[in-house]
Design brief:
By secondary structure, the chain is an alpha/beta fold. The chain has four domains: 1-93 and 347-360 and 457-576, Lyase, Ornithine Decarboxylase, Chain A, domain 1 (Beta Barrel), CATH 2.40.37; 95-341, Alpha-Beta Barrel (TIM Barrel); 377-451, Methane Monooxygenase Hydroxylase, Chain G, domain 1 (Up-down Bundle), CATH 1.20.58; 580-626, no CATH class. The chain is built from 23 helices and 23 strands. The strands form four sheets. Strands 4, 13, 14, 15, 16, 17, 20, 21, 22 and 23 form a ten-stranded mixed sheet that branches. It has an eight-stranded parallel sheet with strand order 5-6-7-8-9-10-11-12. α8 (157-168) packs across α9, α15 (392-410) runs antiparallel to α16 and α16 crosses α17.
C-alpha cells in the first residue's frame, strides 16, 4: 500500500478491509468519526448508535471491560424477520399449512434472552424447544400464548410427567421420541395420568450436509430412529391404541448448513418419511425440520462453512416449495412447518467487547554497530545481510544462520549476548525481506509464513475459554475488529492472546477482505488510551459453553435498547463473577478462605514478620480481591 493511500485512509477503506457491511447484515457499520455503530431500523428511518458511546455509558455505570453487550432490538428484529419471511413464502406459494417456529433453549439459556424472546415472540406464537428437565422447567414458566413446546432429548419419568401436565394446562406440547425405550415409558405414564400426549418421532435421514456439524444425519447419528425403529414405533402405538397421537415428524439436518441444495435434499427425504407415516394411518400435521439456517459469519455469500449461499427468503421459500412439491402428487395436506432456528435468531444480538492490555512485538531491540571479531560466523553473515540490499535468498540464508546460532548456543559454545545479537539481526533481516516483497500479489511461501511470524501479539482482557469457546473447540471464526480509529490506516498485524496461561487461549483466524487470515490488521497502541476490540455475532452457544479455565468467570453483561431518536437505554446490568463467586463454583467457600488467610497473617504477626498495621492492610486487600472482578482491572 502506498504512503498516500495510508495517509488518505477513510472509514470506507476500513469497512472493506474488515467486511463489516458483508457480515453485519445491515446491523453494524462505521460512522464518519471512524467508530463502529449499531444500526436499528424504525418506521421513521434507521437509528445509529456508536458502540464507543455505549461503552462510555456502561463504564459510567461502574462496569469495566471486558463486557458482553446485548442489543435487545436485534433479537427482536431477527425473530420478526424469520417469521415474516416464512409468512411471505407461504403466501407466495399458496401453501396451506402455517409456520410454527420454536427457539431451542440450548442455544442461549440466559434469562434475559429467553424473557425477551418469549415476550416479543408471543405475537408470532413462537415456541420453545427443551432438551432437558431444567430447560423444560424454564420453558413452562416463560412460554407465552399458544406457542409450541417441543421436547427433545432423553426423557425420564419426571421429564415425561412434567410434559404431560403441561398438556393438561393447555400447552401444545410434543414429545419427540428419540429411542424405542422412552416410548414405552411415555405410553405407561400417559395411561397412568389419563392424558393422551401429542407425539412426534425423530428420524435419521441419510442426506449429508456440509458445514461443521455433518454427523447429525446418517446411520451413526446419536439421535433419532432408524427406518426399522420408526416402523416399530408405529406398530407399538397402533397396538396401544395411540396411533392418533402421532402428529409430528422431526428431522434435524444439521446446524449452520451453508449450501441450500443440501437443505433441499434433506427436506425432500424428510417428506418421504412424513408421507410414509400418513400412509400408515398416523394423522400427522406437523413437520419439524430442526435447525440448519446458517449465519453468514464471513459475509462471503457462498457455501464456505463459515458462510451461506442463500438469503433468509431463499431458505424459507426452499422449505415451503420442497415440501409442497414432495407431498402434492400424493394428495397429502400441507403440514404445519416447524423450524428450530436458534443460531440465526440470537447470533447478531450479542457481542464481546474488550480492551488490549499489552503488545509483544517481533522486532529487533538493539542492533550492533559492528560485530566483534570473536563472534561466530553466523553473526557476521547476518550483519552483512542486514547492511546489504535484501532478497528472498538473503532471508533463506538468514534463517539458516539463526538456526546455526541456536545450535551453537545449545552446545554451550556461544554466550547469551551473542545469541541475543543474532536474534536481533535475524529479525532485522526478516523484516526488511518481508517489506521488500509484501507489495507483490503473491508472496513466496517462505515470506507468507514470515508475515504471521513477525506479527504482533496483542494481549486482550478476556478469556477464549469463557467467552468464545467455539473458537478453540471447533475452529469457529467470529468477526473481530477495532471499535474505533477507523479514520486511520491500521499499521500493524496481530494475533490476539487472552489472559489465560494456555497457548490455546488465542484468536489467530480472522475475516479480512473476504478471506480467512492468520493475522488481524490493528492500530498501534497509544500511551494512556484504551484500544477496544469487538467480537461480533457470538450470541449462540458461547455463554453457556464457556468454562472457568484459570478461574476467569462470566464477564459483566449489559442489555441496551436503541431508540428511534438515536439514543439508547440501558435495560439491564449484571455484574460479572467475583473471584469469590468462581472459587465457590469449584467447591471453596470464600468465608473459609478468608478465615484461613486471616489466621496466617495473625501467625505472621506473632512471629514478627509483619506488624499489625501491615496485617490489616494485607487482610483488607485479600477481602477486596475476593469481592473483585476476575479480569484485569486498570
Amino acid at each position: 500500500m502506498t504512503t498516500a493511500a495510508r495517509q488518505n485512509w477513510t472509514p470506507e477503506d476500513s469497512a472493506a478491509l474488515y467486511g463489516i457491511r458483508n457480515w453485519g447484515a445491515g446491523f453494524f457499520d462505521l460512522n464518519d468519526q471512524g467508530e463502529v455503530v449499531v444500526k436499528v431500523p424504525f418506521p421513521e428511518g434507521s437509528a445509529s448508535v456508536s458502540l464507543m458511546d455505549i461503552v462510555t455509558g456502561i463504564e459510567q455505570r461502574g462496569h469495566v471491560m471486558p463486557l458482553l453487550l446485548r442489543i435487545e432490538n436485534l433479537l427482536d428484529i431477527s425473530l420478526s424477520q424469520l417469521n415474516e419471511a416464512f409468512r411471505r413464502a407461504i403466501t407466495d406459494a399458496g401453501y396451506t399449512g402455517t409456520y410454527r417456529g420454536v427457539f431451542p433453549i440450548k442455544v442461549n439459556q440466559q434469562c434475559q434472552v429467553i424473557e425477551e424472546l418469549t415476550a416479543f415472540g408471543a405475537r408470532y406464537s413462537h415456541g420453545l424447544e427443551a432438551g432437558s428437565k431444567a430447560e423444560l422447567l424454564l420453558a413452562l414458566a416463560h412460554l407465552k400464548n399458544d406457542g409450541l413446546l417441543i421436547l427433545n432429548g432423553s426423557k425420564d419419568r419426571e421429564f415425561i410427567d412434567l410434559g404431560l401436565w403441561a398438556d393438561k394446562l393447555g400447552i401444545r406440547c410434543f414429545f419427540v421420541v428419540e429411542s424405542p425405550k422412552e416410548l414405552a415409558l411415555l405410553i405407561e405414564r400417559s395411561k397412568s395420568l389419563g392424558i393422551r400426549p401429542l407425539i412426534g418421532v425423530r428420524v435419521k435421514v441419510s442426506s449429508k450436509v456440509g458445514g461443521l456439524w455433518t454427523e447429525t444425519t446418517g446411520d451413526r447419528s446419536s439421535f433419532g430412529l432408524s427406518t426399522a425403529q420408526l416402523v416399530a414405533v408405529v406398530d407399538t402405538l397402533r397396538q396401544a391404541g395411540m396411533l392418533d397421537c402421532l402428529q409430528l415428524l422431526h428431522c434435524h439436518l444439521g446446524s449452520q448448513i451453508p449450501d441450500l441444495d443440501d437443505i433441499r435434499a434433506g427436506v425432500n427425504e424428510a417428506c418421504r418419511f412424513y408421507a410414509g407415516l400418513v400412509a400408515e394411518g398416523a394423522p400427522m400435521g406437523y413437520l419439524d425440520l430442526g435447525g440448519g439456517l446458517a449465519v453468514d459469519y464471513m459475509g462471503a455469500g457462498d457455501n464456505h462453512l463459515q458462510s451461506r449461499n442463500y438469503t433468509l427468503d431463499d431458505y424459507c421459500a426452499a422449505l415451503v416449495a420442497t415440501t409442497a412439491k414432495a407431498l402434492d402428487p400424493l394428495k397429502i395436506a400441507h403440514p404445519n412447518l416447524v423450524t428450530e432456528s436458534g443460531r440465526a435468531t440470537v447470533a447478531y444480538s450479542s457481542l464481546l467487547l474488550f480492551n488490549i492490555l499489552d503488545v509483544m512485538r517481533f522486532a529487533p531491540i538493539a542492533l550492533p554497530e559492528q560485530p566483534d571479531e570473536a563472534d561466530p560466523e553466523p553473526i557476521h553473515a547476518l550483519f552483512r545481510m542486514h547492511t546489504d540490499d535484501q532478497s528472498i535468498v538473503d532471508y533463506t540464508e538468514a534463517l539458516k544462520c539463526r538456526d546455526a546460532m541456536r545450535a551453537l548456543f545449545r552446545n554451550g559454545t556461544t554466550s547469551l549476548r551473542q545469541r541475543a545479537a543474532a536474534e536481533n539481526l535475524f529479525l532485522a533481516v526478516a523484516g526488511k525481506a518481508f517489506h521488500t516483497q509484501q507489495s507483490n500479489d503473491a508472496l513466496p511461501a517462505e515470506l507468507a509464513e514470515l508475515k504471521q511470524g513477525l506479527a504482533d501479539i496483542y494481549y486482550g482482557n478476556f478469556s477464549v475459554f469463557q467467552s468464545l469457546p467455539d473458537t478453540w473447540a471447533i475452529d469457529q471464526v467470529f468477526p473481530v475488529m477495532p471499535l474505533h480509529r477507523h479514520t486511520e490506516c491500521p499499521d500493524r498485524e496481530a494475533t490476539l492472546s487472552d489472559l489465560t496461561c494456555d497457548c490455546d487461549g488465542k484468536l489467530d483466524r480472522f475475516f479480512v477482505e473476504n478471506d480467512i487470515r492468520g493475522t488481524l490488521p490493528v492500530h498501534g497502541l497509544r500511551d494512556g488510551e484504551n484500544y477496544l476490540l469487538g467480537v461480533f455475532l457470538m450470541g449462540a452457544y458461547q455463554e453457556t459453553l464457556g468454562d472457568l479455565h484459570n478461574l476467569f468467570g462470566d464477564t459483566h453483561v449489559a442489555s441496551v435498547r436503541i431508540n428511534a431518536n438515536g439514543s439508547f437505554d440501558v435495560m439491564k446490568e449484571i455484574s460479572g463473577d467475583t473471584i469469590g463467586d468462581v472459587l465457590e463454583m469449584v467447591e471453596y467457600r470464600a468465608d473459609d478462605l478468608f478465615e484461613t488467610f486471616r489466621e496466617r497473617t495473625e501467625e505472621a504477626v506473632r512471629q514478627g514478620k509483619i506488624n499489625i498495621r501491615e496485617r490489616q492492610t494485607i487482610v483488607e486487600e485479600y477481602a477486596a480481591n475476593l469481592r473483585g472482578y476476575t479480569y484485569y482491572e486498570d
